[in-house]
Amino acid sequence: MATTSTDLVSRRSAVRQTFWLAGTTVLGQPLGVLAASSKDRVTVWKTPNCDCCSEWVSHLRSNGFEVVTHDVKDTAPMRQKLGLAKKFGSCHTGLLGSYVLEGHVPAREMRRLLQEKPQAIALAVPGMPTGSPGMEMGNARDAQDVLLVLNDGNSRVYQSYPQKPST
Ligand SMILES: [Cu+2]
Predict the structure, then answer these.
(1) I want to staple 158 with a disulfide (CB 3.0 to 4.6 A). Which of 17, 22, 59, 148 is the partner?
(2) Is residue 33 in a domain?
(3) Range(s) of the domain holding residue 118
(4) 50 Cα to the center of ligand 1, angstroms
(5) What is the residue-averaged pLDDT of the chain?
(6) How many domains does the chain divide into?
(7) pTM of the full predicted structure?
């Protein structure tokens, strides 16, 4: 089925609306909860036995993000619901504000995203490249790109990480 940009826009506004409703709930919480800025909160959908997903969640927490995880049988339906194409797919899907996060996205690019607030749908690291946060194998790293997925469904490289041999 072809995805028209109108579909994409309506789906995006549905996501924003859901998020706005979630924000209303946050305002009903005690002050202590509000101390951590709600924009630093990440919601993650992952499968229950995904070790690299848990490692990525640890990476986010140790970088100051507040993370809520949901175990699901399959992350694909959530990814689709959030309007992200299958080709960007990885092992887990998340939400940071109204931005979708797919795969082993570094906390560094997430901070930059919050600062720059680009007009975009998502940050994605497709697949599961070695050496991405949560996919460490010694100090080796595959060449990998953190992609910024734009509102029209195209993507551009947000940050490139070169290959690094194991030492
Ligand atoms: Cu993974």
Answers:
(1) 148
(2) no
(3) 5-28+42-161
(4) 7
(5) 86
(6) 1
(7) 0.78
Decide if 34 is inside a domain: no
Q: For residue 35, how far is its CA from the centre of ligand 1 (angstroms)?
A: 30
Beta partners for residue 148, in sequence order: 123, 156
At residue 135, what is the residue type?
A: M
Contact status, residue 86 vs residue 73, Cβ threshold 8 Å: no
Higher-scoring residue by pLDDT: 41, 3: 41
Kindly state the percentage of the chain with pLDDT values over 90. 75
What pLDDT, in 10s, does the model give residues 20-76? Answer: 444 444 444 444 444 456 669 999 999 999 999 999 999 999 999 999 999 999 999
Is residue 95 one of the residues assigned to a domain? Answer: yes
Q: Which of 100, 110, 114, 78 is nearest to 16 (CA)?
A: 100
Tokens encoding 162: 């070169």
The encoded tokens of residue 40 equal: 């630093």
Angle between helix axes 107-116 and 51-62 (nearest 10 degrees) is 50
